[in-house]
Each structure stands twice: as structure tokens, then as C-alpha cells.
Amino acid sequence: MGYLLLKNISKVLTFDDNDNIFDGFDILIKDNEIVRIEKNIEYEGCQIIDCKDLVALPGFVNTHHHLYQTLFRGIDEVQEKPLFPWLVGLYEFWKHIDSESVYFGAMIGFSELLKTGCTTTMDHHYVFPKGKSPYLIDEQIKASRDIGIRFHATRGSMSRGKSKGGLPPDCVVQDEEEILLDCERVIDKYHDDKKFAMNRIALSPCSPFSVTLSLMEKCRDIARKKKVMLHTHLAETLDEEKYCIEIYGKRPVELMESIGWLGEDVWFAHVIHVNDDEIKLLKGSGVAHCPSSNMKLSSGICRTSELVKAGVNVGIAVDGSASNDGSNMWEEVRRAYLLNHLKYGTDGLCAYDVLKMATRGGAKVLGRDDIGELSIGKAADIILLDLNDIAYAGCHNVAVGIVTCGNSSLVKMTIVNGKIVVKDGHLVSVNEEEVRNRAHEIAANIVKTERESRII
């Protein structure tokens, strides 16, 4: 790969241990690693990019997503509904997904993320329709490698269908033995625990209302044996809370504590409906804050400030595109800031704090210390922003400008693992128009098929 030199960067927001912000600095990259950050670097025989008037910061880290849902945005049947009715309506469309739809759904989500400054993402894929290929995680990993994004795939699962008292229809759930065998297969085939790994695996039973506790315990045991992380939805809605109390006699966080699902190797999506004692229990665990999804589905507001103060690792996430309806990470940062201030007023997190949550915070949620900051020895995951548009004129604080100003969320450049993958707002490695057209065709066919089946 060689050397890449970013010259004359207007401002470098490092999010390092000292929260350094540098003016007029250069960054030298060797292969996939940052090796120098200083002024006036001279290095012969390397690619040089003039970054005058640009701002550099670590790439955003997206801590929760459902990539296949990019194909199911704006479906009339599920608009203006809270989570449970929303899910029930969408399961009927999701039961049609297959290998190709999962691949192109991932390509769409990855494309949006990269273009809006995300360099590392996870995905929580838990829908495996009967009669279709069970190797859907493989399609996501293939897409991540084709497009060049750092990717934590989670082997999701649903084992409790309607016939067993769960929410999803039986046609999209799997037997526990089938789930567990594939969990081990995916870990053994794809998990990379080395520094700068591009692919890692976690295990992620979907939620307390779609899996059995037996499955959660068995996934816990496999994950800890294989030294991978655990993930699930938790405390997202009052409906979930009611379900857990009625079925298990415990609130969601209490339930997780009872089965050993807390700690640095566990992170949860949403975590809205928690009390003060439960926040204390979550210390050391991770939370993926999903502001847009929580607002659209009327789920509530995450207690982000209290979680941070209690020592919970908090990152930001776009969540599934059908509940957002985008994979725009830069916009998610803005909404996280505004939602925090709606809840906490002048005691809310500042713009810099929210940016740090979206970068270094997200890295910590995913259990990584090699990404999320611009420091020597860290991964060359860098985004360059052009704040010279009229929409930023008159702004005197760069962090505030990034979070609250601007009419576009497209970055100037995205560098992942030392490779340029977005330039001037456009993807470098794939043909955007071809991906968009094929993905939209697949999505239209699935929706048409389901709607026609209802008429018959």
C-alpha cells in the first residue's frame, strides 16, 4: 500500500487521551497505520493530498444497524406505528429476503455510511427465512470487502416464533441447534482478533421477545469460549418491559443480569426505559444510542448523560434504515446532540462530547482500542470534511460547526485502513448507480410479491 501524506490540514480533531486539536498539521500514513502527526512532514515517494481548508477527524463508528432494512424504507403499511406493530407488519415483507437482497441491502447501507463519514460499522442480522440460504452473514461480509468498510458482523437469531409466545412469525425463526452451529461456523471462518482487523464477529440473539433464555445463555457460553462479543436489543419500549415482566417476572436489565449478560464484552441497542439502579448495573457494558429510530418509532429518549456519567460505554448508531429511514451517520451525530439537549437542556453534552461518542466512544463499545482516534499507532481511518460552504460561515467553533451547521452530510474524503474509499462525496470502489438500480429493483420486487400474495 505504501505511504500516504495528508498535508496542511486546517484542523485535526484527534480525540486522543489529551483531546488534542491541531492547526495546520500533516498526517503520514504507512500502509494502514498512522505513523506521524506533526507540522511540515516531508517524505519522498509517497502519495500527497493537499488538505488545505479541510478538517480531519477519526471515522465515525456505527454501533447498531440492520442493513437489509435499506430495502424496506417508506412502506405504507408500517408508517406511524410503534415498535411492536411496526415489526409485525414488516416481518411479512422480510420473510422474502434471500442472499442477493441481503448483499445489495448491505451495499446500500455501507455506501450511505461511508459517504457520511462512517469507517467502521456493525450489523445485527437476525432474519433467516425458511427455505432460503442460511448463509446470509457471508453475503454481508462479501459486501463489506467489496466496498472497503471495516465491519463487525453479528450472527443474529430468532428462535421464539408466534407458536412459542414470541412476536415474529414462525417462518422467519430458526431452531436453536441450527443457530448455534452457524454461530460457531461464522466465528471460526471470519472472526479476526488481530490489530486493524477488517472483520470481526459477535453473537446477537435478537431480543427478549424473540428468543428463548436458553438460546441467550448458549450464545453467551459460545461467545466467551471463542472470545467474541455479545449484542442484543434491550429496554427499547414499554411493550418490551411489560413482556419481560409478564413472561420472566423481571425488567429487561434485571433479566440480563440474571443470565450473565453484562460486562465489557456486551453491548445493547437503545436502552431507553431504565431506572437509576439499572444504569449502575450497566457500568462497563456498552450502549448503542439510536436517536432517529427512537424518535420515529416514538420509543422514548435514551438517558445518555446519566449513562456516560455512570461509566457505561456509549456510542451512536443509525439503527435499521426502515426505522430511520437512512444510514446517514453524520446526521445521526447531529440528532444525538439535539436530542440530548432536548432532554437535559443546558446540562447536556457539548458538541465535542457527542463527536467523541461517535468516534472513540463507538470504538470502545465494539471492544476496540485501535480505531476511533487519530494517534500514532492507530488505524488510518480518517474522514476529511470541507466546512467552506456558506452554511458554515460565521461559526467560530469547529466541533459545533460539524455537529450543528451545514446543508449536506457528505464528506470530502473517507479513508479506511489507509485506503481512500470516498472522494469528493463519491464512492471509489463501486459504481453507485449500478448498486442503487439493482437494489431498488430487488426491493420493488419483494414488496410487489408480498402485496400481491395478500390479494390472492
From TrEMBL:
<feature type="domain" description="Amidohydrolase-related">
    <location>
        <begin position="56"/>
        <end position="421"/>
    </location>
</feature>
<dbReference type="GO" id="GO:0016814">
    <property type="term" value="F:hydrolase activity, acting on carbon-nitrogen (but not peptide) bonds, in cyclic amidines"/>
</dbReference>
<protein>
    <submittedName>
        <fullName>Cytosine/adenosine deaminase</fullName>
    </submittedName>
</protein>
<keyword id="KW-0378">Hydrolase</keyword>
<keyword id="KW-0862">Zinc</keyword>
<keyword id="KW-0479">Metal-binding</keyword>
<dbReference type="GO" id="GO:0019239">
    <property type="term" value="F:deaminase activity"/>
</dbReference>
<dbReference type="GO" id="GO:0046872">
    <property type="term" value="F:metal ion binding"/>
</dbReference>
<dbReference type="Pfam" id="PF01979">
    <property type="entry name" value="Amidohydro_1"/>
</dbReference>
<dbReference type="InterPro" id="IPR032466">
    <property type="entry name" value="Metal_Hydrolase"/>
</dbReference>
<dbReference type="InterPro" id="IPR006680">
    <property type="entry name" value="Amidohydro-rel"/>
</dbReference>
<dbReference type="InterPro" id="IPR011059">
    <property type="entry name" value="Metal-dep_hydrolase_composite"/>
</dbReference>
<dbReference type="InterPro" id="IPR050287">
    <property type="entry name" value="MTA/SAH_deaminase"/>
</dbReference>
